[in-house]
Every structure is written in structure tokens, then in C-alpha cells.
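Hi everyone, sorry if this is the wrong subforum. Our group has a chain we'd like a structural model of before ordering constructs, and none of us has done structure prediction before. Sequence below.
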Amino acid sequence: MNKKKLIMWLCILCCCATLSAQYGTLTSPIVGNDDSVTFRYYAPYAKSVLVNGQFMVGDIPLIKDDKGVWSVTVKPEKADIYPYNFIVDGTRLNDPGNKLLSPTDAFKSSLLEMPDPDALYTINPVPHGKVHYCTYRSHVLQQYRTVVIYTPAEYDLSAGKKYPVFYLVSGTTDSEESWYKTGRANTILDNLIARGQAEPMIVVMPYGYMNGGTPRPHTMEAGEMYNTFARELTECVIPYVEQNFRTINDRDHRAIAGFSRGGGQSMFTALKHSDRIGWMGSYSAYLTPQVMDKYFPNLKEKANSLNMLWFCVGKDDILYKEVISNTKYFNEKGIHYEIDDREGAHTWMHARYCLAETYKKLFKDKKESEKYPGIMIDASTLPGFSVFYPTNLKEMVAKQGRLPVYIHGNGACTHYSGDYQPMFVEMVKNGYVVISVGAVDGDITVSDMDDNLLDAVDWVCRQSSTSGSDFYQMIDRFKIAVGGHSCGGAQAISVSYDPRVSTTMVLNAGMGNIEMAHANANSLKQYHKPVIYLIGGPKDIAYSNANIDFESINHVPVVSVNFPVGHAGTYKQPEGGVLGKVALMWLDWQLKGKKEASRFFLDAGWLKKNFPECDFKSKGLK
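Answer:
Right subforum, don't worry. Here is the predicted structure as C-alpha cells:
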């Protein structure tokens, strides 16, 4: 090294040392206790520094201080993980003070992670899975490629146990790392498994770029690229995974979903290989009729054989119109699908929502009850809930019209609804669809007072009006009852203000002067339709609170029914026992207008003759 070069490097090192001593590490961004965010950038000779992020519209200018540090403080509307970058004198740059980067093939944006203890992307003290970086040989693309694979926390502790596999594909310009580092696929699944809201599964994140560019999704060239990806996945990735990990190797235990380009690749692959893949999710993506007509002559047969064909797209997404066009094409072909078109755009914030909802749906049963033939139990259509309905749904609707719906919260606010199955079955046999929190074989130790029965109400309204849904024009969104047992009763009370609720059934519960599951005495004032309290007599721990509630309610019709059965009620007995029978009569009267059902509530002589042990009182009944 000559003398001039040596002097130059010494000067650079001195400058760096001086800056480091003066400023230390210039931390950016800084999140304040009030959720404000301060961005900082050191550029003493720059003329302009702007920040651009997906938490705002447009660019925001930074202000330079006398030390050459530019800064600005903003306050995002809500906590999330947002891509952002600086624009320094017209040049887009990431934040040198932030180690979090989005791993894309193009410009690597910095990531602003807002702290939120309730967010699924937050690392919590729960069992954590492992993320593996693996290399496999692709004979389709004639190269070695990297695939990122997540195994659940229990994987290493359960030698011999095999797992379902979810193939999760990233979008245009994204890499095989994107779902891990930007999408937080591992952390979201860790949290959902710990909450009992998702099944333990292996998640495989392949690289979606097929080396021939990325054609626009409306072109036939896109179909050719999707076809190459389908070969890559089925001929190279799946065999590698199944040779090196403990997997359940059948279609019902393989799923695929993806975002943007990855969504198109996922839908194409699932339709082409519906004999090998049973579940499909498409986030902000679509296929054109031309591509489907060319590659899938038996489209309806293939699509309707899938356990799940689900679209997730934001209403502000740049591809929203195209996704809706895709669903209209499915409607014309008689293809069953589901769609979640909530608020959102073509962003990773919305993609993470879609991923979490997919995790909740995957590898859960939709089958006829072995114990109760004629009853379908679907634990996949509505994440976190089970839907009970008759196997002859269409025939029953043709006979009596759209079916009313009863939505139920469980005792102790658990995710276990098995104790109420006899009552649910009797309701279904009599022409109702029943939706309960959790599952009949759910974990009784998992309890969550934050479970919101309005999620089920929203689902009823969406499914009843979505062409392509199994429940389209089958359920009556204007006849919805909410109810629940014990803590689940409080959950029902907390949502009874909603104008879509037609009646409330409070089973062995009452607020009195307590607060539980977001309900309290003030919640009673928000009743706007008739309510019934079904109580287990003086030995029921809810007896006193239920009586206090009854006495305080004067603005809507209210009924108090007491049988000397205790707090557990009779719901596990055949047909739900006596309380289950009364609940069914109440629904028949309130939602179906059956006069014979009203006798229990209006005919004192009939009641005394048929239910002499009943302690009954009411106000405002007509």
C-alpha cells in the first residue's frame, strides 16, 4: 500500500472514530411510551431528508439540527410492523440505525416494529418452535436453492409424531426469508398454538421466483410461471421435506397459501394437484379465466374437492377488483369458496392478518358427527369456533326456510364445548345452526374471556350473503340468538347491545355487581330485545346475581326460569335436559314464532302441569 492510500485510510478511520465518539450509535427509530416514533438520520451535508412508511400517506420531511442529525416524530394510528425508508436528496435509503430489514430481492426497506403485548407478532413467554435454513437440489430449475422451514416447539420433544405441512409462499420481489423475517410466521404460530387456536404444524417457506422474470398476473405468461412453480413444489420441495422431516404424507395434511405472486402460485398449484394438496389460501391474488380454462378443464371438480379454498384481500388492495372478478367466475362455475375482504391494502400488515386466520383454519375437521349421525361439525370455516348444522341442510332449508342461528359461549370461557353437544344437536335437529366457541374436543384448560361472539355474528352475516359459501341463503342473518353458560353467559351479555342480536339466553349466569368477560351491570341497560335467564335454583352460584339482574331489567321483556339442578345445568343430559328443552322452546318462540312453544312462558296452568318443579317469573311478555 503506497503512502497516499495509507494516509487516506487513516483519515477515514479518524473521521469514523470521531463520529462514533461524538454520536455513539445513532439509534433509529425510537418508540416512545405514548407510541410516538422518532426517526433520525445523520447527513450533515444533505439538502433534504424525508421518511416514507406504510403507516402514513406520502412523505414527511425531517428537520436538521446543528450537528447534522435529521429527525422527525410521528404517531402511527395503530401498532404493527411497518416497512419504511428514508429519501436523502432524492435517493431511497434504508435506516442505518435499524437492524430490522425486509429481506427482498429488490430494495430492502427498514422495519418499524411497534410494541404491542397483544399482537400475534410479539414474542411471548410461550414454547417456541425452530426455524431451519435448508438447501435442496432443484432439477426443475437446475440449481441448489434455499428453503426456510419452521417446526413447532413440540417437534423435538415428540419423537415419532408426524405433522401436517403448510407450504407458505411469498410475493413478488420477496425471498424465502420474507415470511419469517417480515411476516413473522414463526412467532404468530407459536402464539396461536399456545392459545389453542392453531394445530401444531410444519411450515415450509420456499423461494417463489422461478428465474424467468415475474409476468403480470393477468397474462398467459403468468400461467406458465405458475406451472413451473407447481412442478418445483411437487417434484422438488415436497419430496425434500417429506424425506427430511416427520410429516403426514396425504392431501388432507398438506396445505398451501401465499401473498401476491405467491397467492397465484398457491391457487394454481392446489388446483393442479388437488389430489396431493387439500387446503388453499390466496392472499391478494387471483387467476384469470383464461389461465384456468387452459390448465384446468375439470376446474369445478378439482376446486370443490379442496377442504378449503379461501381468499383474503383488503378492500383497498390494488388487486381487489381482480380478486372479486375471480370469485364471480367461481360463482358462474358453481365453485365453493370463502372470502374475507376486510379493510386493508396490498401490504405485509394485511398479509400477516391473512396468515393468522389461515393458521386458525388449517387441519381442523369438517365431518359428520360419529356420535350424532345427521349432524355436521365444522371446526375450520370459522376460526376459533365450531359450526353445527344438519347434513341435509339444503333439504331442511327448502322445507322451513333459512335457518336461525344460536351462538354460544362456554362455561369458564373455555374453548371446550363438548358438555353442550347434546343441547346443540337437539337444536340442529329442530332447524337451527349452532355456533360455539372452541370445539367439542377442545382444550378445557384454555380459557379466554376476550373471545368475542360478534366474530360469529359477523361470520353469519358474511356467509349468508356470499355467493359460493356453503351457507349462502341457508342461514337467516336477521334471526340470531346469543347465549352462554356461566362465564360464557357474560360473553353473551357483553355483545347483546348489537342490533343484529334478536334475543339473549343467559345460562346459569348473571352480572349482579360483578364484572366479567367485558360485561357488568351497565351492560344490562343495553339489552334491546327479550332476554331469558335459565338458572339452577338456590344452589346455583349464579342464583343471586341472576335475580339482581332480573329485578333491574325493566326496559325489555325478561324471563327468569329456575330448576333445582345447580350451576352445571343439565346440558350434558340427552337433548340438553330440562334447561336445554326450555332453551329450545324459547328459541322456537322468539326466532320462529311458534305458538306451541310460547305456552311455557305465557300459560301458567300448562307450565305448572308439565313442569311443576319450575320457579318461573317474567316481566313485559306479550
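For your construct planning: The first strand starts at residue 30 and ends at 31. Confidence is low (pLDDT under 50) at residues 9-24.
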